[in-house]
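Quick log. Single chain, no ligands specified.
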Amino acid sequence: MALFYDKEIRIFRTLCGSDNNNAYLVVCPDTKESVIIDAPLGPEGILEHAEGTQVKAILITHRHRDHTEGLEQVVKTTRAPVLAHPADVPEIPGAPIPIEDGEIIKVGTLEIKAIHTPGHTPGSICFLVCGHIFTGDTVYSGGPGESRGPEATIQILKNITEKIYTLPDETVVLPGHGHHSILSIPKREYRMFYSEHPDILPPIPPSKR
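-> predicted structure:
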């Protein structure tokens, strides 16, 4: 059963992997073209959802092993190219094709925008389509993901506030772990945290429409 389904987009989610990961399938209802987002261990469920669609690409949010352990199986089954940010490409199996910040991946009538959000890893990337954003480990339903060290923490917070929290509150957040939510929820948590540390945290700019 689809997690989201309307005339514009159809999204499936499967829980799998070595760390309770989410894998997603995004389908264009008009053409039945699709993409898979992340390939954790045991991707059979997401591959089952993909049957009857034409998988155009496998999009990887970042290089960590729990998001790529099933990549070989997904590539073998779909024969689709793997796409990832250049900063993470060397550590992702399957010889990914580099995609840059702001690049558009067309899937049928859908346009999926790549948003580079380094911090969790140098090549962490989110994917925005039709009011839904797939955030990997950059943003969870409750707030920012983890980063290693103070510089990476500042980097991830800057990217989240400038590139993600400027999106409309009703944008659906689909993270690499845990349940989905709408963006107003992690925004609210961040604003509370910011109010206590305005000297070290960047504020959230006005939302863009």
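The chain has one domain: 4-196.
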